[in-house]
Design brief:
- The chain has 65 residues and is mainly α.
- The protein has one domain.
- The protein is built from four helices and no strands.
Length: 65
């Protein structure tokens, strides 16, 4: 999970409540915000879930995040 930039302390709850938390898109907060912009939306409810589970701003698996 560390390699993928996932917070282990949030993983169990995220898996347990996955459909309610993420709905139709999963990814880092920045990726969800980018997709919302592409769709002409201010935000998406999945942003809060992404903020809880994914580490933002760290290099993960060779990709800046």
């Amino acid at each position: 999970m560390e390699r993928l930039g996932i917070r282990s302390e949030a993983f169990g709850e995220t898996v347990e409540h996955f459909p309610e938390k993420f709905g139709c898109i999963v990814g880092r907060e920045s990726e969800i915000r980018q997709r919302a912009e592409e769709l002409g939306r201010k935000t998406m409810h999945e942003v809060a879930a992404a903020r809880e589970v994914f580490r933002e701003g760290e290099e993960v698996d060779g990709v800046d995040g």
